[in-house]
Amino acid sequence: MYTVFTFRLRPTVRQAQALGDMLRDHCSLYNGALQERREAYRHASKTNIKYADQSAQLKEIRAFDPDRQGRWSFSSQQATLRRLDKAFAAFFRRAKAGLTPGYPRFKGVGHFDTVLFPRDGDGCRWDSTPRDRRTRVRLQGVGHVRVHQHRPVRGRVKTISVKREGKHWYVVLACDQVPREPLPANGSIIGIDMGVTHFLTTSNGEHFENPRYLDASADALAVAQQHLSTFPKRTRLRSKKHRAAVRKVAQLHGRIRRQRRDYHHKAAKELIRGHGTIAHERLNIAGMTRAPKPRPDPDQPGAFLPNGAAAKAGLNRRILDAGWGKFLTILAQKAESAARRVVAVDARNTSRTCPRCGHVARENRLTQAKFECTACGFLANADHVGALNVLSGAGLVLCAEA
Predict the structure, then answer these.
(1) For the packed helices 240-274 and 218-229, what is the interaxial angle rounded to 10 degrees?
(2) Mean pLDDT of 165-193
(3) What is the average pLDDT value for the chain, to the nearest integer?
(4) Is the pLDDT of residue 386 over 90?
(5) Is the overall model pTM greater than 0.70, yes or no?
(6) Which residues contact residue 369 at a Cβ distance below 8 angstroms, ignoring those fewer than 6 apart?
(7) Could you give the CA distance from residue 21 to residue 368 in angstroms, rounded to a whole number?
(8) CA-based max dimension of the chain
(9) ∠26-27-29 over CA atoms, to 5°?
(10) Quick check: helix, strand or coil at residue 298?
(11) Which H or E run includes 304?
(12) DSSP assignment of 342-388, as one string?
């Protein structure tokens, strides 16, 4: 099994400065490689430069600039070039598919936050036998950096990444051959319905409350963002106060993200421990949170009719704050480790189908919380009805597979 372990780094002042230099120099390498590809395509008869061409130039680049590029790991610089190559591959794939291409852009120093080391022991080594009872990771050009290891690392370390989030530094270990930790066999099957009023509702009628961490921090976030917007553009890049305001906004978003992730892990663990099979809707979250198309007014050229964009924006914000996609990913990972099963069910009409008589109608769902069948009069909570229909769909899926 493949698992990722993330630990907080505790660098000294000099090590933190060296880590910042490492990100800055890798960002410069990324931007230089991007510029070379742009210039080659524009001025050299639309020539496409590949990863192999740019990787072959690394030795010359390191010899030309030993103080900046020569001090870092050769393999990590190759990984940075592969990152650019993947960005171009995704650009061409989207262009061929008729989607918005999204041409790769230059990275600012503040937006280049990760350096990847493709192999343990090549420029970066995880110290599995810590000295003086302190875990450390060795980084070329930085030294042995102390790690706050809060849980044991299992499996074999494949790749190591160093990541910056605000003022904090993290090491990310991607491990394979991680042994599973199966729970005792459990024949219980349950369906769950994701929502915004309640985070999720089970087919047993249990509601998991939606904590709405973004709403809880909305006032502090609004104050921080208003303070950030007061700085003139001409002083943004060289103002110490502006950088402090940016860090404040980032800290608030980071806290919201950590609170949301912690809640997802706890909710997923509770479901995994209690049930052997969990069924959920197969959700197209990107489509659900897409803004409505504008409606031109045929009588007034240049004017538009109301399209409910404001109400849809509020719903989109609540869906994204709940983090359904991240929760379902965590649920699948925990289920794999515990030898449980997660089943995705078609989401069509799960909120409009009567679980008693099977009647499907839009009018069955009167409000966000109330369901009343127009055929048999069955009355229940709408989210509970959705979970019951998900459970029924999971039974059909399991029977078909058997």
Answers:
(1) 150
(2) 92
(3) 91
(4) yes
(5) yes
(6) 197, 381, 382, 383
(7) 52
(8) 80
(9) 65
(10) coil
(11) strand 304-305
(12) EEEEE-TTTTTB-TTT--B-GGGB-SSSEEE-TTT--EEEHHHHHHH
Per the structure block, which two tokens stand in for 219?
Answer: 């006032």
Closest CA to 217 of 256, 164, 271, 274: 256
Q: What is the pLDDT of residues 158-176, one digit of tens each?
A: 999 999 998 899 999 999 9
Residue 374 in tokens: 């127009």
**Residue 276 near residue 188 (C-beta atoms within 8 A):** yes
pLDDT digits (tens, 9 = 90+) for 21-35: 999 999 999 999 999
Element (H, E) at 336: helix 324-337
Strands (E), 168-233: 168-176, 189-194, 198-202, 207-209
Beta bridge partners of 189: 277
pLDDT at 81: 97
Q: Tell me: the pLDDT tens digits for 329-379?
A: 999 999 999 999 999 999 999 989 999 999 999 899 888 789 999 999 899
62-73: pLDDT as tens digits: 999 999 999 999
What burial letters (b/e) apply to 172-190, b meaning 16+ CB within 10 Å? Answer: ebbbeebeeeebeeeeebb
| CA–CA separation, 59 and 381 (whole Å) | 66
Identify the residue whose tokens are 């290891």: 149
DSSP state of 184: P
Identify whether the C-beta of residue 330 lies closer than 8 Å to the C-beta of residue 268: yes
CA distance 231 to 227: 8
Question: Environment class of residue 59 by beta-carbon count within 10 Å: exposed (0-12), middle (13-18) or buried (19+)?
Answer: exposed
* 161, 164, 170, 172 alpha-carbon torsion, rounded to 10°: -30
What is the Cα–Cα distance from 20 to 23, expressed in whole angstroms?
A: 5
Could you tell me how far CA 282 lies from the centroid of its own chain?
Answer: 18
Half-sphere exposure of 223 (CA within 13 A, CB side): 5
